[in-house]
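Reply to dn_fold:

You asked what the input looked like. This is it:
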Amino acid sequence: MDNDSARVAWITLCKNKNNAQPVDISYEDIIIYRVHEAIDKHQMAGVITHIRPHLICLDFDFPDLPDLQLLRQIRASYSTIPLIMLTVQHSESLAVWAFRTGVRNYLVKPLSVDGLLKEITQFINQLDPKFSNPRINLLRHYQIPPEFHFISSGWSSKRTLTAINYVEAHFHEKIAEKEMAALCGMSVFTFSRLFRTEHHMTFREFLIRYRITQAKEFLRNPQITVTDVAQLSGFTDTSGFARLFKRYIGMAPSSYQKRHVD
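and this is what came back:
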């Protein structure tokens, strides 16, 4: 390897190869080493040890829970190597999680090759000539957004995906099933029947489960109150939230908070 060049480990984790970012290039003093196959944390160690990169790029299309767990493992194991994330997923919650986990930049594809090179070049230029260690983000164990606990690659073809995406972005707001039906271009009856067929639960059940999962993540913060968690999670009153939380989780929100604070 050329010790005078900036080395970039480009790891492609796209489920659909057509969504992979074109990047088989070298540019000025930057050498990009592309890893095409998805790899686990053990293989990852060998790749990173061999390349000795100054920058890691993770190329996703629609990341799921295992993908994000792998990203977090990389950050934990190689916290001194800056990391850039690319994804087709335009998600504010995912971007917030990524930055808090220590990702240096969150880029939404598709990107032009020139645009991507500009991003990488600007980032590399921010490093000192010896590529010294960047800052270490102490929040690398920040909880993965709960919506990505549900998402799987098989959902991309489901006709109710628009409603799922809406819930991801607006779970804290009032959401009516008839509005979701209209959003999907269906009658309420058709939407209700199809949602149950595709997800094996009613839309209302999904919405409650989703909000409860979000509430569990909020409760890991020891400074937040149960009342605030109820409001942030989309529940209209604290007592109703507490009853539902105990029904689904088996304990009161306050008890869960005491056991699971980060």
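The CA atoms of residues 70 and 76 lie 10 Å apart.
Hope that clears it up.
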